[in-house]
Amino acid sequence: MDRQKDQIELLLAAPRGFCAGVDRAIQIVELALARFGRPVYVRHEIVHNRFVVEGLEQKGAVFVDELDEVPDDALVIFSAHGVPKSVPAEASRRGLRFIDATCPLVSKVHREAERHQAQGRHVVMIGHAGHPEAIGTMGQLPDGAISLVETVADAAALTPPEPGSLAYITQTTLSVDETADIVDILQQRFPDLAGPHKEDICYATTNRQQAVKSIAARCDAFLVIGAPNSSNSLRLVEVARRAGCATAMLVQRAADLDWDLLAGARRVGISAGASAPEVLVNEVLDAFRDRFDVRLEEARVADENVEFKLPRELRAAD
To answer: How far apart are CA 36 and CA 261, in angstroms?
Structure first.
C-alpha cells in the first residue's frame, strides 16, 4: 500500500512566464525558418532560456555570439534584447539579410535615448553592466554620451559631464522598487533631471514582480523558474526575498529542484520569468504532485492581452 503523501500548498503567481516581446521573438525565429528554410542564424540567445533555445536549435536555428560567425549568404536574426547600432550597420556593410526581433518596448527606450541626446542632454542608463539589453541600449549613442548606473551608490557618486542637462532611461527588466530608489537619488542630486514619458520598466516585469510581492510573505519558500542569465527572473527572486520570503531561489526546471532546501515547507510560491515557457511551470507542478498531496491556488494581480506586430518581412507568413 502506498504511503500517504504529505500535504503542501502551492501558490502560483499570475501573470508569470512569457511576455509579448518574448512570444514575438520566438515566433520570428519559427516563421523565418518556415519561410526561408534552415539554417537561420540568431545573434545571441533569442531569449534567455536554454529550453527555448534548444527547441529552436532542433528546428534549424543556429545561435552565434557575433556576426563574424554568420556566413555571407545567410539570414540572421537579432535577439529580443536589442543590439548596438554597430551591429545592423555591420550586417548591412556585409550585405547580410537580417531581421530585428528587438522587443518593441526595448526599442522605445532606444528612441528615448536618441531623443534626449538630440535635445542636448547627457543620458544616464539605469541597468546592469554586461547585460545584452544594456549593451544594446548604450550602443544607440556615441561613446561618452551615456553613463551606466547600477546601484544607489553609483547614483550618489555619479559625476556627469553636463549635470544641468541630464536625462535617465532604464533597462526594461529591473526591480521596480530598487529602480525607484536610484531615481530618487538622481532627482535629489539633479533637480532638472528629465525622465521617460512613460515608465521604461515594462508592463510584464512590473506585473510579475507585483504578483510575487502579493504572495511571498505567506510562503515558506519561493521558486522562480527561469535562467541564471535572465535579468527579470533574478529580479523576481530578489522581490520575493524583499517581500518576506527568505528561502527564495531560481530553478531552471524540475530536475534542478533541491528538495532538501524545501524540507518542512508547507506553502511554496511559484512564478516564472518572462522568458520561461509554461511547460516548465507544469513540469515543476508535476514534480510536486509526485511527492505531495498538492493544493494549488493561483494568485492573479493583472490580466495581460498585449500583442506586438511581427516585422514586415514576416507578416505575409503569419
So the answer is: 47
Query: What does the pLDDT read at residue 157?
Result: 98
For the chain, the average pLDDT equals: 96
Residue 155: beta bridge partners?
Answer: none
Share of the chain above pLDDT 90, in %: 95
295 CB contacts (<8 Å, ≥6 apart)? 7, 8, 9, 10
Domains along the sequence of the chain with CATH = 6-18+203-300 (3.40.1010.20), 20-103 (3.40.50.11270), 105-189 (3.40.1010.20)
How does pLDDT run across 55-77, given as a tens digit for each residue? 999 999 999 999 999 999 899 99
Among all residues, which ones are annotated catalytic?
Answer: 133
Q: What strands, in cross-sheet order, belong to the sheet with 97-100?
A: 61-64, 40-43, 75-78, 97-100
The residues, any chain, with a CB within 8 Å of residue 74's CB and separated by 6 or more, are 39, 40, 41, 96, 97
Listed in sequence order, the residues at least 6 apart from 173 whose beta carbon sits closer than 8 Å to its beta carbon are 133, 201, 202, 205, 231, 232, 235, 274
CA distance 19 to 209: 13
Please measure the distance between the N-terminal and C-terminal CA atoms of the chain and give it in whole angstroms.
Answer: 53
